[in-house]
C-alpha cells in the first residue's frame, strides 16, 4: 500500500474536506460559507484531481549556480585529489570566480562525495613510473565524460598538480588529438610555474597506444618542444570514465 504524503503543517483543510469540495455541486461562495474557508481555497481544490498537497521545492534537482560541467568538475576534483572543501573551493574559483562555499558543498552532498570515506583519507594518488623526476611541477590529466540535461554527451579534461592547489579543465564535445593538443597549450599558458612533467592516460588524444617508441604523437611532440616530459600511466583508464554518484568508481 502506497504511503500517503503528510499534509503541510499550515494546511487549513483535511483530505476529507477537500474531497467534499471536489464532489459538491454547490457554488464556490456557498460552499465556502458552509465550510468556513476562503473562496479561493474552494476554487483551488475543485481544479485538482487529488486531495494531497502539491510537491514542494524545486521540480528539477540540481544546483541553481552551477551548470552540468561545473558540477561534474567539482565531483571529479573531489574524487581524484581528495581535497578539503576549502582547498577545492580555492582551486575551482580560478574557473568559476562566483562559486560560493555553500554552493560547492551542496553540489558535493548531492553527488554523495561531501565526506571522504575513512579508508580513502590517508590514501594518495599512485605516482607514475619514473626513475629520476625532472625539475618542475608534475601535472596529471584525468579523463571523464558526463551528460548534459538534454542527454548530450560531453567530455571533461581535468589537469591537477601534485600539491592539489592548481587545476585546469575544459569540457569539449569531441575528444581527439586536436582536442588534447589544444588542452595542452591552454594549460601550459595558464600555468604560472615551471612544468616538469605531465602524466596522461593511454588515450589516443595524448599518445598512440601500442606504437613504437620512435612514433611521436602531436601531444608528445609539443611537450618535447616545451621541455616537458610526457609520461603515460597505463594504470589509468584508457577510455573516459563516467562521472557517477558517490565513491563507487574509486578503488
Give your account of this protein's structure:
By secondary structure, this protein is an alpha/beta fold. Among the domains are: 32 residues, no CATH class; 115 residues, Nucleotidyltransferase, domain 5, CATH 3.30.420. Helices cover 33% and strands 14% of the residues. It contains nine helices and six strands. Strands 1, 2, 3, 4, 5 and 6 form a six-stranded mixed sheet that branches. The longest helix is centred in the N-terminal third of the chain and has 14 residues. The chain is elongated, with a radius of gyration of 27 Å. It starts with 14 loop residues before the first helix and ends in a 9-residue tail after the last strand. 25% of the residues are buried.
Question: Secondary-structure blueprint of this entry?
Answer:
Blueprint: H1 15-23, H2 28-35, H3 39-46, H4 68-81, H5 85-92, H6 101-110, H7 118-121, E1 137-147, E2 153-161, E3 167-170, H8 177-190, E4 195-200, H9 218-225, E5 229-232, E6 241-242
What brief labels describe this structure?
9 helices; 33% helix; 6 strands; single chain; six-stranded mixed sheet; alpha/beta; 251 residues; Nucleotidyltransferase, domain 5
